[in-house]
Amino acid sequence: MVTSGTRGSRRRVAWGGQGQPEDPRSRIVEAAIRTLATHGLEHTSLTVIAREAQVSRQTVYKYFSTKEEIVEIALERAVTDAGDRLVALARTAGSAEEFVVELCLSVVREFTANPAISPMITVLEQPAARRRLLDPEALALARGYLEPVLGYRPDLTGDLEEMTETFLRFVISLMTFEGPSGRSDDSMRDYLAKVLVPAMGLHRHPPGD
């Protein structure tokens, strides 16, 4: 789940996590992710990122114009990695309904608890950021995360775009508007099954059933 504020192709860093990436730009992005997780958005600065990346501030400015640019790319990378992992977990579901419930719950919990990507919630409080999350590029990226639904319900292939938009609107709402405090995961699952599943059209039986 990524925003499209940073234009261009998805920024996949060719680095498996062993040692430091050789590319200084990739090293800076990785350092920004670690800095966000350790210090939070308010205490993340170019100086701290440069120190964590073991490069000079001049090197940082060679690749990035502002702290905001680095943070946006770091969040995009962290969110994409988390999204891939959460989809893999949700794929263990036994039905399309269970898949979307587990994916939605996991995304909301991850964004709330993971300090490397929780700043995205603050970003999404801005109307412009919410609009970017629903623009064609962002929807196309998010659609890939929901494609496993078609493995359960191939009859819904023509509805995938609308289903993706509905899913994103639910995720944005759940992350930016506080619900009942102390709601357990099981309670959230019940809520999503009653509200999200029908909204995505998954309550309709496949043809022939």
Automatic annotation (TrEMBL):
PROSITE patterns for this protein: HTH_TETR_2
Family annotation (InterPro entries): Homeodomain-like_sf (IPR009057), HTH-type_TetR-like_transc_reg (IPR050109), HTH_TetR (IPR001647)
Molecular function via GO: DNA-binding transcription factor activity; transcription cis-regulatory region binding
Record's keyword terms, sorted: DNA-binding, Transcription, Transcription regulation
Pfam family of the protein (one): TetR_N
Organism: Gordonia amarae
Protein's UniProt name: TetR family transcriptional regulator
